[in-house]
Amino acid sequence: MAKDPSAGVQLASLRDERPLTLHAWLTLFNMLGVVLDPYTRESGWIILTADRIFAHYAEADVRCAFIVTADPAGAREFLGPYADRWLVLLDPERELVRSMELERLPALVHLRQDCSIAGVAEGWHHQEWNEVLDGVEQIMAWRSQPTLPHPLDPGPFAGTSAVG
Questions:
Q1: At 116, which CATH number?
Q2: pTM for this one?
């Protein structure tokens, strides 16, 4: 079971490799993050789904980000054009993953501005991801949520070990 992460975890972005604390990333907005392990096929299967979710919330008061357990070169290679489209936070040592006690990746994580977990879903099961998105809808007072599953989404899968 995931737990609230440490506000002091340091995360750099691909755009500016100077790390900031998780607390700093959450100063203005909640965060909806998709945590990926670029060294597994399963995390690659969910990139298009995450892109569609992020596009849906692009105008909402929530910061959407890929959180990738890799260095900048690995994250950029794994995400390809999506690395330039969305915020990409780097967790190469899996400090955030360990701090949250995530067990399976990919994971959908909704973090509040106080660094507490509003919702989390590990692996890919559209019902669980929908529950997290329901929480985004409620907190953000957003009018709609993306349809999950979409015909292009993968079938359900458990994911892989989060700690490598």
A1: 3.40.30.10
A2: 0.97
